Amino acid sequence: PPWEPGTQVNPWSISEVQTFICVVGDEKIQRELDGATRNERIFQELAERMAEFGYTRTSTQCREKLKKLKSDYKENKDYNSKSGADKKVWKWFHQMDAIYGHRPVNSGREGGHDSAATALLESLTEEEGECFRSIVETV
């Protein structure tokens, strides 16, 4: 049957999302996303990096997945920050928080990072290594 662009014809597996978050968390990718207004090339690179792990996704699928993950992360974080709210548990929260917890989710395009943000970004490199090690161990 015909399908609309953006619909889930080929849903992402749990291991695929885990891999995607690790790839997106790469410091180089984050710097490029922060500085880019035209970022099609970056999403193409994400698709190529996913292919290295055996997942076939287009740059558009990668863009839409990141948009959805960031939206879900922000919604979960905002909800859980309200006092008295029953906490929602979202399976990708900790991985996304490691990437976006120290800055606005829709940031980017600001001139540069302060020293605290730079230190956090540098610390992600080691976490990323852990992230990819966990993927290799589960494959």
UniProtKB/TrEMBL annotation:
Residues that span the membrane, as ranges: none
Sequence ranges assigned to domain Myb/SANT-like DNA-binding in this UniProt record: 10-99
Pfam families in UniProt: Myb_DNA-bind_4
InterPro entries, per the entry: Myb_DNA-bind_4 (IPR044822)
UniProt name for this protein: Myb/SANT-like DNA-binding domain-containing protein
